[in-house]
Specification:
The complex is a heterodimer of chains A (237) and B (263). Chain A is mainly α and 237 residues long. Helix content of chain A is 73%, strand content 2%. Chain A has one domain. In chain A, a hairpin with a 2-residue loop joins strand 1 and strand 2. In chain A, helix 1 packs across helix 6, helix 4 packs parallel to helix 7 (137-168) and helix 6 (99-129) crosses helix 7 (137-168). Chain A is globular, with a radius of gyration of 19 Å. Chain B is built from 14 helices and no strands. Chain B is mainly alpha-helical and 263 residues long. In chain B, helix 3 runs antiparallel to helix 8 (119-135), helix 3 (59-79) packs across helix 10 and helix 10 (144-174) packs parallel to helix 14. The chains are: A mainly alpha (237), B mainly alpha (263). The A-B interface holds A 21, 24-25, 27-29, 31-32, 34-35, 38-44, 47, 50-51, 170, 172-173, 176-177, 179-181, 183-184, 189-190, 194-196, 199 and B 25, 28-29, 32-33, 35-36, 38-40, 42-43, 45-51, 53-55, 176, 178-180, 182-183, 186-187, 190-191, 194, 198-200, 203.
């Protein structure tokens, strides 16, 4: 167990060396959130709402979606494909620890760093410029596990991407497929249930929706503890 | 110049022939690249599907801007991929090798690699542009404006190429320019895919300084009869001259300031 914790800690420390450069990058990334916010203000502003969402909720959605994007986005294939290409994978598989847990822990340190040095400053920036939305206590309690689960699902998707390299070496195609589903189905840019037609009915049940759609619903107080014991309903269907 | 162009053409054909050795991989990458860019447009469709218009622009009208920006950005990523990852040359000290060649450094750099699979983005954006123009009435209704709108990807590509040369030039001084790229390439192009009148003033100024607003929005506004003056049609070409002038000056100054890693 100590070895796994050490992996998390070391990856966190490695990223910590580039905190200033990452902070600048975060500011650039903030622009995407602002663009989405202004798009929603221009479209939903005159109407007052879009689907079941009010304008203020959509603005918060765009801001928190960007925060989540910065938290959960993973490097292609969790870099497993690089080890496969160079042959280093044989050494990595020889380690006397479980490969899946090893990769997940190695990556978790980076995401912990991202949470503190990317997502949090971004959240504060949006909170100061767009407005505060402080979730109520029950939502906050549910938000923390939903963030952890979003990260777990993201890492599993990245791990699956990486595993493909054992058969195909080149994983560009699966990366594109994953990115496409991430863009449309994660809810980082817009609520997934607003997607037209069958996409809006199917994608809320996909693993990609766990990355930002459900954390956003919980953050805005649109989904409560009922989400744990019954399939998503209301806004999500 | 003639020699450089001839050499560039030979490098281009050689890259294409090398690519054909891996036909299946190329076709799969092309398809998936087309697919991923399509999901970007799905977001636009979803917003307009729910709200009917954005800043007074209908879906086909936004489709025109989106198509023009999409084709321009994808053409740049196809033929200017080495310029896009230029910081790697500076960080690893590989730029010395480029300087040794008896040809203009920019031409050598562009000829090193072409990512043909990114043409998938061009195919997708061109489809959106043509379908949007068809919904707006086609050549019968739009007349000469239809053909003018079809030339916009050309001017747009030249503007985006110019901006990217300027961004890459900054690597001579700062080393890493990925953060600047996030803002001035990815962010700016994403913002330029929508009518820029929906943004607040600070962002409109930003998109004028990084002149992506002239790629699609400004010329399309007049051509689609949404306001402006006939000068708007000429503006992209004036912006190309200004952007390339600044970009080439920056590139030249950057080369003079370049210090190798010594590795």
């Amino acid at each position: 167990m100590y070895a796994y914790w050490l992996l998390v800690h070391k990856t966190y420390r490695r990223n910590f060396q580039y905190r200033v450069a990452h902070l600048v990058d975060t500011m650039g990334s903030a622009l995407f959130g602002y663009i989405n916010i202004y798009i929603w203000l221009a479209t939903a502003g005159p109407l007052g709402s879009v689907g079941p969402y009010r304008v203020d909720q959509l603005v918060c959605w765009a801001a928190f979606g960007q925060v989540m994007y910065n938290f959960v986005s993973w490097p292609h294939g969790l870099n497993i494909q690089l080890a496969v290409r160079t042959g280093d994978i044989s050494l990595e598989l020889l380690r006397p620890i479980d490969f899946f847990t090893y990769v997940i822990c190695r990556q978790s340190g980076e995401h912990l760093y991202k949470l503190i040095y990317r997502s949090l400053p971004l959240y504060l920036l949006y909170a100061l410029t767009v407005g505060y939305h402080i979730p109520k206590a029950p939502s906050l309690l549910l938000l923390l596990p939903s963030l952890a689960l979003a990260l777990y699902v993201a890492l599993c998707l990245g791990y699956l991407e990486g595993l493909v390299s054992f058969w195909t070496t080149d994983i560009r195609w699966i990366t594109y497929l994953n990115m496409a589903l991430f863009t449309a189905g994660s809810g980082g840019q817009l609520p997934v249930d607003l997607l037209p037609g069958i996409l809006g009915r199917i994608l809320p049940f996909s693993p990609w929706a766990a990355l930002a759609h459900y954390p956003n619903l919980i953050y805005l107080g649109l989904q409560g503890w009922g989400l744990c014991c019954s399939p998503p309903h209301g806004h999500a269907c | 110049m003639k020699t450089s162009l001839r050499l560039y053409w030979r490098l281009l054909t050689a890259t294409w022939q090398a690519l054909l050795q891996y036909k299946f991989s190329f076709l799969v990458s092309l398809f998936f690249h087309c697919w991923i860019t399509l999901t970007d447009f799905l977001v636009v469709i979803t917003i307009i599907y729910n709200a009917r218009s954005v800043g007074g622009w209908s879906l086909p009208q936004i489709g025109v801007i989106y198509g023009v920006v999409g084709i321009s950005a994808s053409l740049f990523r196809t033929f200017g991929c080495e310029l896009h990852r230029f910081q790697e040359y500076i960080i690893r000290g590989e730029y010395d090798g480029i300087l040794l060649r008896p040809l203009p450094s920019l031409m050598v750099l562009l000829g090193r690699r072409v990512e043909f699979f990114r043409l998938g983005g061009v195919i997708q954006a061109a489809t959106v542009l043509l379908v949007s123009l068809h919904h707006l009435g086609g050549p019968g209704t739009l007349g000469w404006r239809y053909f003018y709108l079809l030339t916009l990807p050309l001017s747009g590509t030249l503007i985006i190429f110019g901006i990217s040369v300027a961004i890459a030039s900054c690597a001579f001084w700062f080393g890493r320019v990925r953060d600047l790229q996030t803002l001035a390439f990815y962010g700016a192009n994403y913002a330029a895919s929508y009518p820029t009148n929906i943004y607040p003033q600070w962002m409109r100024i930003l998109l004028t300084v990084i002149p992506v607003t002239f790629v699609g929005y400004v010329p399309a506004k007049f051509a689609l009869g949404l306001g402006g003056s006939p000068w708007y049609l000429l503006l992209p070409w004036l912006v190309i001259v200004a952007t390339w002038l600044v970009a080439l000056l920056m590139w030249r100054a950057g080369e003079k300031a370049y210090q190798s890693t010594g590795s």
